[in-house]
Every structure is written in C-alpha cells, then in structure tokens.
Amino acid sequence: MLEKLDEIEKKALELLAMVEDEASLEAWRIANIGRSSAVMNVFSQMGGLSKEERPLVGQKANQVKTALEKAFAERVETIKTAALAKSLANEKLDITLPGRPVRRGGLHPATIVLRRMLGILAEMGFQVYTSRDVETDEMNFQALNFPPHHPAREMQDSLYIDAGERGDNPVLLRTHTSPGQIRAMREFSAENPENPPSIRIALPGMCYRYEQITARSEVQFYQIEGLAVGENITYGDLKGTLADFARRMFGLNAKVRFRASYFPFTEPSAEMDVECFVCGGKGCPVCKNSGWLEILGSGMVHPVVLQNGGYDPRRFTGFAFGMGPQRQTMLLHRMNDIRYFWGNDVRFLNQF
Ligand code: PHE
Prior knowledge:
- By secondary structure, the protein is α+β, with helices and mostly antiparallel strands.
- The chain has helices at residues 2-18, 22-33, 38-44, 53-90, 109-123, 137-140, 179-191, 235-250, 303-308, 325-333, 346-349, and strands spanning 127-128, 134-136, 159-160, 171-173, 199-208, 220-230, 256-263, 266-275, 292-301, 317-323.
- The protein has a 7-stranded mixed β-sheet, sandwiched between helices. Strands 2-4-3 form a 3-stranded antiparallel β-sheet.
- Strand 7 and strand 8 form a beta hairpin.
- The site of phenylalanine (PHE) has 11 residues, from strand 9 and strand 10.
C-alpha cells in the first residue's frame, strides 16, 4: 500500500508537469486530488487494513495528498504568471501611435445664424414660439388684413396644396412666418379673453414661395418673426428694439436706418437697413452703391390684426418684424448666391 502511494504521487506529479493551461489544470485537479482520485480511494480502502498498517498508510496518504495539493497550487501560480506575461507581450499598447481623427459633423450655416439670432432675441425677452408650415389662406393672408384678391398677395406668390375643395380658404405652404402672429395671439387671448396677457415672442420657421430660383431668391428660406403686444407699446419701442438687435448682431458700431414701407398687417410699416459693412457706407457692388443693406420688414401691428387675434385695439398696441437669417448670413459672409444654402455642397458647408 505504501509503495502504491509513492507510485500514485510520482505519476500525478509527472502528469502535472505536462499541464500547460488552465483547462487541463482543472482536469488534473479532478483526476488526481478530486473525490474519486487514486489518493482518495486509498482512504476509503483503509477499513480492509490491519491495525498496525492503518496509521502508517493513513499518515502516508495524508502526506501524498498534501504534497499533491501544494504542487497543484504552485503549478496554478506558474501557469497564471506565464499567461499574464504572454498577454502583456502580445497585447502591447503602443501609446506613441497617432490616433485616428474623428470626423465631426457640424451645424448648417443657416442653423448657426438662426440660433444666434434667437439667442439675441432671448436675451431681449423674446421667447420662441413655433407655428406650422402648412397654413390656410385665412391665416396666411385674410386674418393678416389681406382681403381675397388683394394685389398685396402678389408680393408673396404662394404654393397652394389643395385642389379647390376649400373654396376661398385653400391650404398652402406659409409664405411668411406672420400667420404665427395670429395663432399666438388667438392662443394667448383664448386663455383669458377679458384680460389677455402681453406677448413677446420670436417665431422661427421655414417659408415657401413660388419663385424663380435665382442667385437672390429661393423657393424656401427661413424667417424669424418677432411680435410684441401690450399696453402702451410705441413706435419708439420698435425702433429701439430693432436698433439694439442690430448692434448685438453686427457690432456696437452698426448704424441703422428705417425706411417707410408697406405691409397690409402693419401700420405704419418700415424696413430697416444696416450700413453696408463691406464698404462702410461708401457704396459698393454688395450694397448696389446705396451704402445700405436691407435686413428686415417691420411695423406697428395693424388694429385689424390685433382684433383678429383677440386683442382689443383700443387697449393694446404692438410691433412686429420679420427677418431672414439666410440673408443676414449672406451679408455677414459676403456670399453672392443664395443657392449655396440648399445645394448640399460639402465644400461650402465645411467653411462654417
Ligand atoms: N411678413 C413680412 C414678409 O415676409 C415681413 C414682416 C413681418 C413685415 C412682420 C412686418 C411685420 O415680407
């Protein structure tokens, strides 16, 4: 029995020396020191031994078992160390290798300017109000004091999208953001018709016109509408607000002028020009030798429009303005063709 134990130990150690990886380590453990291994079997056969033999064999079996367990633990350690060394060598990270550049997306130039303008208007107290792109003739024209067949409709040739089912109130794509004035005023005055709240909103959105596409006109373009309604709002407030906007947008030295104009929904109406920043007002091709660049239309909200929005014109006054962020982008960057905006040419877009 004692010789058999020596034999078991010798064989197990030989096998252990051949074990190279963690999977065969586990197989070795089960076969050589596991519950049905040869050493363990010796313990269960002890009952058949004589009284003298039993302590000797027991002691020897314990020694063999401990020796094998110790050898196993050492082997585990060796294999783990070897595996670590191997993976360190194989998976070496070269931190001197230059990184691969990440391709970044960017905002569209029209979006950049739109957001900048909305940011300036927000500082001045104008909250963003969004309205729909698809409008009715009533909202886009009639409620804004354009009667049916009024010649002023020709200022804004429309894209109609119904086939006449709605008579004299056809569906169309908004030609300007001004119908949002009516929607906002109606929404706010409906909350409290007797005592409607004052309004200060900026209304951004895409507008659509049935136009020949040229260097200066597109069938779709952004506008930002501004609307302030309240008690005691004067034309002085309009001028002060818009001149301040121009300084925040184009710099403290920006000079502006107001030119009388006509819109059916404002009275009086004015267009605002900034002094040409290409030539400093001397006259050049960008300002067509006038020294001035037109940037927006504006005016005091027409009493009929206030009435249509649910605001009593005997008590409330207001001013409104509409401007084109793309036009201002063109002026700022001296772009000579509006078609670049929706042309999807990355060489153009990458410059912003
Ligand atoms: N809606 C006008 C346009 O598109 C601009 C405007 C807005 C004028 C508000 C006056 C007041 O031309």
